[in-house]
UniProtKB/TrEMBL annotation:
<keyword id="KW-0808">Transferase</keyword>
<keyword id="KW-0594">Phospholipid biosynthesis</keyword>
<dbReference type="InterPro" id="IPR004552">
    <property type="entry name" value="AGP_acyltrans"/>
</dbReference>
<keyword id="KW-0012">Acyltransferase</keyword>
<comment type="pathway">
    <text>Lipid metabolism.</text>
</comment>
<dbReference type="InterPro" id="IPR002123">
    <property type="entry name" value="Plipid/glycerol_acylTrfase"/>
</dbReference>
<keyword id="KW-1208">Phospholipid metabolism</keyword>
<comment type="similarity">
    <text>Belongs to the 1-acyl-sn-glycerol-3-phosphate acyltransferase family.</text>
</comment>
<protein>
    <recommendedName>
        <fullName>1-acyl-sn-glycerol-3-phosphate acyltransferase</fullName>
        <ecNumber>2.3.1.51</ecNumber>
    </recommendedName>
</protein>
<dbReference type="GO" id="GO:0016746">
    <property type="term" value="F:acyltransferase activity"/>
</dbReference>
<keyword id="KW-0444">Lipid biosynthesis</keyword>
<keyword id="KW-0443">Lipid metabolism</keyword>
<dbReference type="Pfam" id="PF01553">
    <property type="entry name" value="Acyltransferase"/>
</dbReference>
<comment type="pathway">
    <text>Phospholipid metabolism; CDP-diacylglycerol biosynthesis; CDP-diacylglycerol from sn-glycerol 3-phosphate: step 2/3.</text>
</comment>
<feature type="domain" description="Phospholipid/glycerol acyltransferase">
    <location>
        <begin position="66"/>
        <end position="178"/>
    </location>
</feature>
Length: 245
């Protein structure tokens, strides 16, 4: 068992080094389409090494141009979404400090926000609107932190205004991680005192994981208030997770 764990860990490290090289050498010269293909392929392979199978649940089609919002369960979330539908992400600044993965997330175009920094938030907000107006897909986790599977914390409304200003829809998505019996997988929880290294080892040592992404009907942002969008998105995700449990 220890040998298998060591081999998985080595494979993860080799794959991370390959990702670092891609971000440093290829991404600066790559077109948007190529970056998406590389991101999708790299994310899928990382999850495969971790024995995480990604599944797109039957639901609404994922829009090519939208503000994507989802519940936040684990550090896996960004890679699950990117393996299916590559996005420009907005994430909390703590992710930037994750060993290697934080640098990779930054290299893939993730924007990091420090809690409580309103000046930085306003600057980032303007950048998000510009990216959305260019026709790109942007994603973030409006809970602001991870939560226990099946639960959804209140959604912070600030960044929903970017969809209003850019005149794009908000598309909620529900993320869940299941075991072989279809129950929430215990190794994936990333709450409390669990740190990134503990979580990584729990996933590598534990049984295989089935990651499930359910895209929900988009919410029209035109004429709406950011709090209304946040509440509607929260309700949609919470209801989907209740139906899925």
């Amino acid at each position: 068992m220890k040998i298998r764990l060591a081999l998985r860990l080595v494979r993860v490290m080799v794959h991370l080094v390959a990702g670092l090289a891609t971000c440093a050498l290829v991404f600066p010269l790559a077109s948007g389409g190529m970056r998406e293909r590389l991101t999708r392929r790299w994310s899928g392979k990382l999850l495969g090494i971790c024995r995480v199978t990604v599944e797109q649940a039957e639901g609404a089609p994922v829009l090519e141009h939208a503000l994507i919002v989802a519940n936040h369960v684990s550090w896996l979330d960004i890679f699950v979404i990117n393996a299916l539908h590559p996005c420009r992400f907005v994430a909390k600044a703590e992710i930037r400090a994750w060993p290697v993965l934080g640098w990779l997330a930054a290299g893939a175009g993730t924007v990091f926000i420090a809690r409580g920094n309103r000046r930085e938030l306003r600057h980032i907000f303007k950048g998000l609107v510009a990216v959305l107006e260019q026709g790109q897909r942007v994603a973030f986790f409006p809970e602001g932190t991870t939560s226990i599977q099946g639960e959804v914390l209140p959604f912070h409304a600030n960044l929903f205004e970017a969809a209003i200003d850019a005149k794009v829809a908000v598309q909620p998505c529900a993320l869940s991680y299941l075991d072989a019996g279809g129950r929430y997988h215990p190794s994936v929880d990333y709450v409390g005192d669990t740190n990134f290294v503990d979580s990584m080892f729990a996933i590598l040592e534990g049984p295989p994981v089935r990651a499930r992404l359910l895209a929900l009907p988009p919410i029209i942002a035109t004429g709406a208030h950011r709090r209304e969008l946040a509440e509607q998105a929260h309700t949609a995700v919470a209801q989907a997770l209740r139906s899925d449990s």
